[in-house]
Amino acid sequence: MLIQLNPTGVLDLLSQLEVDLLEQSSTSERYKLFRNCALAVLNVGSHTDSSSEIYNKYEDFDIRLLSRERGIKIELLNPPATAFVDGEIITGIHEHIFSVIRDILFICQKYEKDLSEQKAITHMVFDMLRNAAALQVNSDPSMIVCWGGHSINEVEYKYTKQVGYELGLRGLNICTGCGPGAMKGPMKGATIGHAKQRNTNNRYLGLTEPSIIAAEPPNPIVNELVILPDIEKRLEAFIRTAHAIIIFPGGAGTAEELLYLLGILLHPDNAKQSLPVILTGPKESENYFIELCQFVEMTLGKQALDKFEVIIDNPELVGVKLKSAMANVRDYRKSQGDAYYFNWTLKIANEFQKPFAPTHENMAGLDLHLDQEKQLLAANLRRAFSGIVAGNVKEEGIQAIKQHGRFVISGEPALMKAMDRLLQAFVEQGRMKLPGSKYVPCYEVKA
């Protein structure tokens, strides 16, 4: 099957120089990345979280850029049939395909050189969000970032929808990692709340990255998609666009997000920041939050527990608290002369911006002991969980495990015992793989 598509969004008006640059990018080493991200977007609704399984299934898929005087078109060869209805590509998927071109080919070619300066990294995140029209200037704080696992049970999924519904009723918008599970549920619930309030300016922002997009393809509700270059820039995009953060039950990826957030909030320069954080889930998930809080207290101390609130089985209370908190966020940003749409004043240290490659050597070399600054410990723990995510669902991580065996994570005995206990709880609760899939650990924790 051969399909041609016209451009949408920022790419519907290009100069000939920009067209030439796009053509060069599409034939460069970045092409494989571009192809794989496009395939992930076309494969929405798949029931696997294995990137390599998706790529192997569609080995005959290809995508080409066609240069025209008035711009570009794209040509799809053997795309997944599920992306089409009566021979026509689904509109949302069509838009997301051009988001892939915009972010992977069009924007990233501006930043070929390694970004080492903190300001340059933050500028890249800002530039990508701005170019995707994800930063709305004339609007009050309303963006709620929702984190949580792609592998959650039906009770937890329904709860995320209920929370989303309460947020939607109150005119709040949703930003997630754009995949299934706890990333889809809040968006789905919010659509009903927005519809009841006749809210036509509803926003469902999805932030992803190339190495995770196949395992967690954008869910059908995402109406704004941005593909950041790596997990560190994706996490920075989350917290700089957030006016509040909700964390639902999840696995290693959710623990990574929480540790990243706490490490930043524990920095002295961020002591006065107004960024509400709520951990919430149904009654059945209470033990999950108990275990997570125990791990946070053991590693980062009671000060870290003060950075968030836990609400069990009360979606309405979550909605009420976050709606009322928007006034405080607005007042704080105004007092600092900061933008409502992008939190420039938030201090993000270098250890949270520098990309971490989860190789066996890097995982084994992590500095995991309790006698260090809390934000440094949080950064190293974040890297450990990031490596586990890579070994679970990212293509390069899966291949590395096949070739060299499990990642070895070692450190101070008490810390390793606590980490092993938390990870084992995630495994027993089915949070490491999609329901019905047998989980084979990609890591080994040693004292």
Brief characterization of the structure:
With 447 residues, the chain is α/β, with parallel strands linked by helices.
Describe it for me?
This protein has 447 residues and is an alpha/beta fold. The chain contains 17 helices and 14 strands. The protein has helices at 16-26, 31-42, 51-57, 91-107, 118-131, 154-169, 185-196, 231-241, 252-265, 286-300, 302-305, 315-336, 350-353, 360-364, 374-393, 395-404, 413-428, and strands at 2-5, 62-68, 71-77, 84-85, 88-89, 143-147, 173-176, 204-208, 224-227, 244-247, 277-281, 309-312, 407-410, 443-446. The strands form four sheets. A seven-stranded parallel sheet has the order 9-8-7-6-10-11-12, sandwiched between helices. A three-stranded antiparallel sheet has the order 1-3-2, with helices on one face. The chain has a two-stranded antiparallel ribbon with strand order 4-5. Helix 5 (118-131) crosses helix 8 (231-241), helix 10 runs antiparallel to helix 17 and helix 15 (374-393) crosses helix 16 (395-404). It is globular. The protein starts with a strand and ends with a strand.
Task: Itemize the secondary structure elements and their pairings.
Layout: E1 2-5, H1 16-26, H2 31-42, H3 51-57, E2 62-68, E3 71-77, E4 84-85, E5 88-89, H4 91-107, H5 118-131, E6 143-147, H6 154-169, E7 173-176, H7 185-196, E8 204-208, E9 224-227, H8 231-241, E10 244-247, H9 252-265, E11 277-281, H10 286-300, H11 302-305, E12 309-312, H12 315-336, H13 350-353, H14 360-364, H15 374-393, H16 395-404, E13 407-410, H17 413-428, E14 443-446
Parallel strand pairs: 6-7, 6-10, 7-8, 8-9, 10-11, 11-12, 13-14
Antiparallel strand pairs: 1-3, 2-3, 4-5
Helix pairs in contact: 2-4, 5-8, 6-7, 6-12, 9-15, 10-17, 15-16
